[in-house]
Amino acid sequence: MPCICLDMSAVEHNFRIVQRLAREWRFCWLPVLKMVAGYGPVEDFLRSHGVPVTGAADVDEHLCFGRSPDASAHVYINIVPPSRAGDVVRRFRRSCVSSPEGMEVLEQAAEEARLSHDCLLMLDLGDGREGVRVEAVDGLAEALERRAFRHVRLVGVGVTLGCLNGLCPDSDIMRKLFAAMRRLRPLMPVPTATVSLGGSIFWNWFAIHHEAFHEALARVPGWQVELRVGDPLLVGFDMYRSEPLLGGDFRRDMFEIRAQVLEVQSKCAQYEGTFVTNGHGTRPARRDGSWVQALLDCGILHTDMTDVAPDVPGAKLLEYSGNYAVLDVTDCAARPAVGDVVRLRPGYWAVARAFRTPQTEKAIWTKSAEAQG
């Protein structure tokens, strides 16, 4: 069984940076843990260090690790599926809506559960994912003003950029956002409403523009800013722009996947016979000559194999199937042997799949301790 390992010392390092910047840049931080499916040790670390609430992207995310949901400590960061509204109001203190109909579904579910529930109204600023278009805010506000909700309340607005079409925040987009906030504020029966900015494409923009953003926010009284991001904690890199995150020396080495070598064999090109696509629907490039390959116990049932790279000098990932990966180790100065453990460097989606896959073991380790041992 392959294993995905998390270095908690790297997580703590990044946490300290975010904690400091939250004070300096004046934002409330909502750590979104969808990358690790709400993995218990990460949640426990955050709780023990004073972070009361984390964000979840799946209604059933808690099932990945058999934890009972705690509505006081979790918010649901996506639009609520109508069929799961009852689960959402019981498991989360806040969720997202984008229509009066969505509010009504939550109102009914909250009434049946005898609970109160908070909502963010999601706005589409141009990236085209969830939310009402800002051009339609007036009509939406009028529709909401005609309805009376007793069990759910709007507590702010949320926006997401980058995730679907890569749209970046800029001054024009922010002007549209502030105009929508002015129109919607009377619908929010809270002393301080929240403007929630996500995903992590906002981080470097906010690093540069946070003072100007707060100046504009001061002209729209009654708001606080929330950054709804997980990457500064768990990625440490701006994946959208392929550049470092601003504000500190973020670590990027939180994760590695360890797979065991099952066999090491010399192979050569074999092209006799009829060939079709392989088990995952591709046609691998043909190779000439011969090579030495190592077979690993890690495949697409365990992680996203398109998003990993071997951490072995000279090794190349050739192909993979459901349970195996094949490395070309011909050029390795020290070729792995049967039983050796090979380390793979995973990207975001490889980590996300590995944490959601029961067949992939999860473990905590610390590089410094390992080096000393």
Describe, in plain words, how this protein is organized in 3D.
- The protein has ten helices and 17 strands.
- The chain is α/β, with parallel strands linked by helices.
- It has two domains: 8-234, TIM Barrel (Alpha-Beta Barrel), CATH 3.20.20; 255-372, Lyase, Ornithine Decarboxylase, Chain A, domain 1.
- The strands form two sheets. Strands 2, 3, 4, 5, 6, 7, 8, 9 and 10 form a nine-stranded parallel sheet that branches. Strands 1, 11, 12, 13, 14, 15, 16 and 17 form an eight-stranded mixed sheet that branches.
- Strand 8 (152-160), helix 6 (171-184) and strand 9 (193-198) form a beta-alpha-beta unit.
- Helix 3 packs across helix 4.
Spell out the blueprint of helices and strands.
Layout: E1 3-7, H1 8-25, E2 28-31, H2 40-48, E3 54-56, E4 74-79, H3 85-91, E5 94-97, H4 100-113, E6 117-124, E7 132-133, H5 137-145, E8 152-160, H6 171-184, E9 193-198, H7 201-218, E10 223-229, H8 231-234, E11 255-268, E12 290-296, E13 308-310, E14 316-320, E15 325-328, E16 341-346, H9 348-355, E17 361-365, H10 367-372
Parallel strand pairs: 1-17, 2-10, 3-4, 4-5, 5-6, 6-7, 6-8, 8-9, 9-10
Antiparallel strand pairs: 1-11, 11-12, 11-16, 12-15, 13-16, 14-15
Helix pairs in contact: 3-4
Key words describing this protein structure:
373 residues; alpha/beta; TIM Barrel; Lyase, Ornithine Decarboxylase, Chain A, domain 1; 10 helices
